[in-house]
Each structure stands twice: as C-alpha cells, then as structure tokens.
Amino acid sequence: MTEQGRDLVVDRLRRGLRLATLAIAVTTQFAFALPLLVANQEIYLSPAREALAFAILTAVAIAAGVRVLRDRPLGRSRWIMVAAVFTASVLATTGIPAAELMSEAEWSYGVIGWFGLLLLVDHSAVAPAVFLGAHTVVGFAQLILVGQHREVADLVVVTAVVLGCELPVLAAAMALRRLAVTASAAAGRAERVRTADAIAEHLHSDRRSRYADLATTTVPLLTDLTTGSADLGDERVRNAYAVAAARLRRLFAEHDEVVDPLLHELRACVDLAERNGVVVYLGTCGDRPTPPPAVRRALTEPALRIMATATSEARVTVLGSPAGVAVSVVARTDEVVVNEPEPVAADDTGVTVTRLVDGANVWVEATWRTTD
Amino acid sequence: MANNGLTTVVVVDDHPAIVSGLEAWCAAAEPPVRVVDSGATPAVAWTDPGLSADVIVFDLQLTGQVPAYADLRRLVDAGRQVIVYTMREDRDTILTCLDLGAFAYLTKTEGPGHLVDAIQAAGRNLPCTPPAMARAISTDTRPDRPRLTPREVDVLVNWFACESKEMVGRKLGLSVRTVNSYIDRVRIRYANVGRPASTKAALVARAIQDGLVRLDEL
C-alpha cells in the first residue's frame, strides 16, 4: 500500500511536469522559431538544411508528445531523440552564415534547451543539467571557432535569458521530486497509522467478545468471591470455580500457535486437575483432521467439566479416524456430580456427547464427524 | 506350565522400584503369582531360578537407547512367554514386539490390573490385549497386516479409551463376553501372521482348541 501510494504521487507529479515541458517546447518551436525560420529564408546558406533541422525537431516533438500524452515512458528511444535534437542543432547552426549566428535568423538556440528538458526532465536532475550545459558550451565554442569573438557578450545575454527560463523548470522538477518522496513517506506513515488502528480495533472487539463470554460465567464467580457470598464449603460451588478456571486456561491455550491445537487445548483443560492431584493419562489414537476452533471448544467442554469433578484418576483420550474426532474421558468422580446431566452442546458445531456412568466412574465422549 | 494355579515370574528391569512394585502386585494377585527372581539384564531369565519361570516381564528399554529386540527374539525363540513392560508407547515398537512373538505389550502407564491379568493369561496361553496394544493394532497401517472389520476396530478403540470391557459392552450394546471375543480373535489373527514363533503357535492352537476361532477363519 505504501509502495503504491508513493508511485501514485510520483506519477502524478511527473506527468504534470512532462505535459508542461511539452507545451513549452512545442509553443517555442512553432510560435517563436517557425516565424523566424519563414521570415529569414533568404539569409540561410542552405534553407533546406534549416528546414530539415526544423523537421527533425517536429518529429521529435511528435514522437515524445504522443508518449507524454499517453503517459508512457520514453524508454531507450529517449537517447535516440536526444541525439536527433543535437543533430538538428548542428544542422540549424551550420546552415546559417557565421555573421548571422547572433541575428534573429538563428532560430534554434532558444528552442533546443526546451527539447532537452522535454526529453530528460523525467529521467533525473543531472541529465537535463548536463544537456543544457553542453548545449551552452557548444554554442559559445562554435561562435568563437567561426571568428565571431565580438558577439560573445551578446551570446552571454541571450544565454542568460534562455537559461533564465529553462533552469527554473529544472529546479521545479527537482523540487517536485523531493516533494514526491516526502509526500509518499507521509502517505506511508498515514497508512501505517490506519493499519495499526484497524488492528487495535479488531483486537478490541475480540477482547470484548471474549469478555462477553466471561462476563456471564467467570465474572459472577469472581464477584461472589470478593463479596464473600460464595460458599466454598459446597462441593458444587467449588466445581463451578474449577470449571471456570479450566475454561480460562483453555482460552489462553486457544491463542497459542501449536501443531496440534486440540491436544494442546485439552492439556490446558486437564492441567488444573493434575495440579490438584488427579492422575491423568492423556493419550491419542490414530490420525485425525484438525477441527475448527468452535468445534474444538465443544469437544473439550465435556472433558473440562468432568475433570473439574475428578477425584483420583482420569483417562483422557483423543480418538481419531478419517471420518472425525472423539474426545473421551473416563474419570473417577464424586457421586453427587455424576448424576448431574451434561449440558447439551451447541447444535451448530455438530458435536454429539454420550455419557455412561458405572459406579463412581463416568465415561463421557464428545464426537465430531467431518462428514455431517 | 502353571502348577496348582501358581504362575511364576522373572522380572528383567533395571529399576528396583518397578521390581518391588511388581512383587507387591503379584503377591496380592488371585490366582497367585510369584516373582522368583529379578535383575537388570536378560541373564536373570537364562539362569535358575529365572530359567524355569513361566513368564518373563521384560523391560524393552534397558541401559541403552536402543530397544532390546535381539534379547526379546532370543527369549521367544527359546519358547519363553515374554510380556514386554516398558515406557515406550509408540505403535511401531508395539507392533514389532508382537511380530517378534512377545505375548503381550504393556506400557508402564497401565495399572497393576492389566499387568497381573497379562501374567496370568500368559501362564495359561490365553490371549490378552491390554489397551496400548489395542490402540497399536487398531491403527496398524502396514500392508501385510491382518484385516479388521469396522466393528473390531470400534471395540479396540473403545477398549483403549475406557479400559473397562463392561463399559465398552454397555456403550456398544454387546455383552462382555462378545467384547472379549472381538478383542481375542483380533489378537489370534495377529499371532498367526509374520515371523513364526512357538509361543504364537501355542496361542493360536489354544484358541482353536477353545473354539475362539475356526481354522478356516485364519
């Protein structure tokens, strides 16, 4: 998202800049250079060469213009076009008598620079600067080579005027580039803040839903404990606390990243009974699919409730088959609790619970079938 | 092998607490079981008084990390009834021991009832399938395994889950006798496959004699 945001900002600014340079280059060529070219035909050594130079620039303007308007990169053809522009410059400045180089018949000097910007402004800051520098140096060298030393001062003035218009565009391009980087960084920061917000929101709702579960089960027990209204001498009350404690342990276990979540959560359910001195055998039999979290909770719930009442020993087994999973618990429990009916599991999980009492032993099995 | 209902046992285990516990369990057994000798190496089963003991209770995991399959094989080849009694619970170890000809396999998490039952069954050549063994058989996937019916698998898995044949019977709507016959017939079929051993042959022969299985079923 940050990457995309940055690209979007950079693209928009770059496109604006390219459109601007295209407009200036074409306007300069046709509104400024073309009238001069037409008006001074008789002065040129070779009007054909001048026309060719103008034609080359026109071709470059069209080729580059099409891509700028379509918002396509110039690619490799960029350097061919740069060479073409230099060629046009050479043709234009050699097709005119040396004495006329500083007259208004020399139409190309003010145009070439804009074409350089048009072709290079989106490439980097250095390339257009080198282009403008090279063009200026060549201009001065040519003037001196053809023996027009007197005109150097004039060229300085003209160069100052031309570069005075071109360099601000280059400076603007560099400023925009920096701006784009800053803007994209800001966009990235904003994006990160939004993501963090979304995560926090999600976590919060998660905690709220968990709290909603606990509010009806654990919180009343804690309230009773703090107000002293809980009768801890009553076996049933103590069982209720044991079940709530085991549920909390299972809740913590549900958020662990483990290979076998069902066994891990089951271990959390029996942990408390083990600490209270119940000898627990926890075994598995066969391969099995991993049920979704809601099903795992329904599968471990009967075990959790029985374990809270186990007195001496318990055998907890996870029985797997390709068709489903069963969690079986055989525990020696108190007579009182054995007669309590098992609460019916939530129907939407498809978990069925069977229960068998044999003396002090109770055997509870929760089964989930994948094919249901 | 058993004289006057008394079964004699030699214990091969390197933990003195295990030996003492076993002696106490055997002393309380009915019909009586007596531990005649014990030691940390199989040598105790090859010399008197261990040599004449009816049953050997054998810890597979003696000093080394490697299961003592070679010692087990030698004892079985000498016609001894060996009950493997060890910490290991994995299916492949159990199935390997059964294939070598061990009479039964018990894990040390299984209580005194199962071990004493197994010793007494071994003394009389009657099939015995403790829960861990039932689990290994019910989850056997080897290509040359005896084929079990879904009902047999069901009985074995439930037997592993609850360790009480009465409760398995009540849950599946069978009599304890039927539950026993399902489990024993599977055990006999396992005794009838793989590496031949005189103890396995004796188990099968006794089962045919008792009418537990018919020859054509094997």
Task: Map the helices and strands.
The complex is a heterodimer of chains A (372) and B (218).
Chain A: H1 2-39, H2 47-70, H3 77-94, H4 109-120, H5 126-145, H6 152-227, H7 235-253, H8 261-275, E1 279-285, H9 293-309, E2 310-321, E3 324-333, H10 335-338, E4 351-358, E5 361-369
Parallel strand pairs in A: 1-2
Antiparallel strand pairs in A: 2-3, 3-5, 4-5
Helix pairs in contact in A: 1-2, 1-4, 1-6, 2-3, 3-4, 4-5, 4-6, 5-6, 7-8, 7-9, 8-9
Chain B: E1 7-12, H1 16-27, E2 33-39, H2 43-46, E3 55-58, H3 69-77, E4 81-86, H4 91-100, E5 104-107, H5 112-123, H6 131-138, H7 150-162, H8 165-172, H9 176-191, H10 198-209
Parallel strand pairs in B: 1-2, 1-3, 3-4, 4-5
Protein architecture, described:
- The complex is a heterodimer of chains A (372) and B (218).
- Chain A is 65% helix and 12% strand.
- By secondary structure, chain A is α+β, with helices and mostly antiparallel strands.
- Chain A is rod-shaped.
- The two termini of chain A are 42 Å apart.
- Chain B is an alpha/beta fold and 218 residues long.
- Chain B has one domain: Rossmann fold (3-Layer(aba) Sandwich).
- Chain B contains ten helices and five strands, in the order E-H-E-H-E-H-E-H-E-H-H-H-H-H-H.
- Chain B has helices at residues 16-27, 43-46, 69-77, 91-100, 112-123, 131-138, 150-162, 165-172, 176-191, 198-209, and strands at 7-12, 33-39, 55-58, 81-86, 104-107.
- Chain B has a five-stranded parallel β-sheet with strand order 2-1-3-4-5, with helices on both faces.
- Chain B is globular.
- The model of chain B has no long low-confidence stretch (mean pLDDT 88).
- The chains are: A alpha+beta (372), B alpha/beta (218).
- The A-B interface holds A 281, 283, 285-287, 315, 317, 319, 326, 328, 330, 354, 356, 358, 361, 363, 365 and B 89, 109, 135, 138-139, 157, 160-164, 166-167, 170-171.
